[in-house]
Predict the structure.
Amino acid sequence: MDNPNIRSSHVKRTPTLGGVSFFYTLIFALFFLHNWDKFDEAIYFIPGLTILFIVGLKDDLLVLSPYTKLAAQLAAITFILSNESFRITTLNGFLGIYDIPVYVYYMVGGFMMLTIINAYNLIDGIDGLASIVGIVILVIYTTIFYLTGEYFYVLISLALNGSLIAFLSYNLSSNKKIFMGDTGSLIVGFIISILTLKFLALSPESYNNLPFLLENIPLIAISILIVPLFDTARVFTIRVANKKSPFSPDRNHTHHILLDTFKLSHKQASFIIGGFNLIFVILMIILSSTSYNFYLVLFLITFVVVMAYLFYRFDYSFANIKRKILLRKKVDNIKSEMKKGGGKLIQKKKKN
């Protein structure tokens, strides 16, 4: 059960084991598809999923240290990186980069998967957000893998998406609410990181049916994950700038600003962020069909900087308003105490 605290967006104790269903759905789907020609790749999913399921479940029940969870994530990632099918051999001319050495793949691939898993985990802060963003991401990957002929990954995406859609109705419920917990967010983040790695590892011929230039593929991957990546980069920057640990919890996340500053409900904030993710991907696909990656990189950097500044101004303005309200309350309390004290003094003088 998750108990409310000062950072929480809920007020009642809530079950946190919604992610258990994700694990069993994926394991069932993998064994159901065991005759598929891609099962030699999928078999590497199972050890990683099992590790993250056990660690996530224990964290939801007992709370583990960040280092224990990090070690589990690294172990799960190792199984995927050890399979040649997921190896990224080229960036297809992105920023002039073609061939990728093996050691660079292991470092960049490992860091990328670790970032995606933790970024997805961090956006699970309000009702519906992680589910809606996950659904958007998986719908996009389902479409991509369908167009590239990777039907095994289409089915894996659909299986997990079905679980998320079913879970969403309970996560948004007022009287049957349940959270996915770390069990769910770690598993979903892990699968999304695998799908991203596979998308980048496809052969150049596989991209022929996709509506964007070959050299823009890394930018498409970033745009698909724009919400978790932007939010994580933003909050980590704020925490480090304030001389705090990047993993120290706070209410500086994008979804918290939408709740606190614009007074949106959980459902409103979640659907707005999920809708933004989908629209941004569509925009990047349209631009990537004709524009060269250098200009798109400039556009992406400019967009991120502008959005970060806007959210900083919103957050800063709201913080100032809160400080003024607190200060006004303190002044009113002092005045009230002074009046009470003055009244008592007058009464004493009258008695004398």
Remarks:
- The mean pLDDT is 86.
- The beta strands are 90-94, 97-99.
- The radius of gyration is 24 Å.
- The longest helix spans residues 293-351.
